[in-house]
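Can you give me the bound-state structure? Components:
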Amino acid sequence: MSDFDYLQASLIMGGVTFALRAFPFVARGFIAHHHRIQVLGRRLPVAMMVLLTLYAVGVHHWGSPADGRDQLIAVAVVAVLQLWRRQALTSILAGTLVYMALVNGWPGL
Amino acid sequence: MTSKRGLVSLTLPVMMGYLPLGAVFGVLWVDAGLTWYWAPLMSVLVYAGAMQYLAVGLLAAGIGWIDLAVASLLVNFRHLFYGLSLYHLLPKGVIGRNYFIFGITDETYSLLSASGRVKDPETALWVVLLNQSYWVLGTLTGMALARGLPPGLQGLDFALTALFTVLAVEQIRAKKDWGAVALGVAAAAVAGIWVSDYFLLAASVMLVLVLLAWPERKQKEKPAHV
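Here's the bound-state model for the whole set.
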């Protein structure tokens, strides 16, 4: 990729994100009074985060679940830790360490 | 406004999160073989954690710009609602105002909306600036660390999965919306079986369409929090 490609990608990602963050300031009434937007705002993030987790796990490569078991174990570790301690950083670091231990075949696993 | 020391202690929880999470982004970026200096530039220009993590894989795979725009829209869609409770903190000047809006990440939003300790736009602007500086500093740290990691080390990219898992758990905990959870799983299954090449795009478009069309009783809606 050239510098121009990176710049274009950054401006697209940054631009879309900025537009989302700016929208409520320019269109307060629209968001506040449109029933469907409210419904979308309440329910989409839940569904989207579940979807993104499944995407990151790689369910769309069901044909070749090379490390499906390791992924599931590590996701379970993250979810349980997060429900228990509610410290995002601890959950993420612990889950990543567990996953790395599993896929790299570190001693004892 | 709050004193400089007060600002640091106020933003300390975000610092604890952004330094290591930014570092993971820096490591992933270098590991993926992408042009090194675009990691910190992206943390300056984009400043959206989950999307930046996701972008590492997408850019390495050579994704098109429409897909990138759609992914940004859907991953960050929740940000559409953050501004509604931050109106009183919006700075007056054009630059300050736009930078404040640019900097409303998940963590900054929760700090500004929940703590009650930030009451004026000037303090709010400092909070945004400090938080982003932690994120950029974390990215640079990760890039430096990436060189020291043993070659052939696998699995660091699980941090992305872990991040999304944490966000999913927090969303479910807050809203207890099992219908939406089932919808997310169903969309993933349908897209995974029939359109796995366009998995994320297809599944998320399905989510939006179903949610827009789903019949729902109006009186159950709470009034908007403005």
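A couple of observations. The mean pLDDT of chain A is 86. The longest helix of chain A spans residues 3-26.
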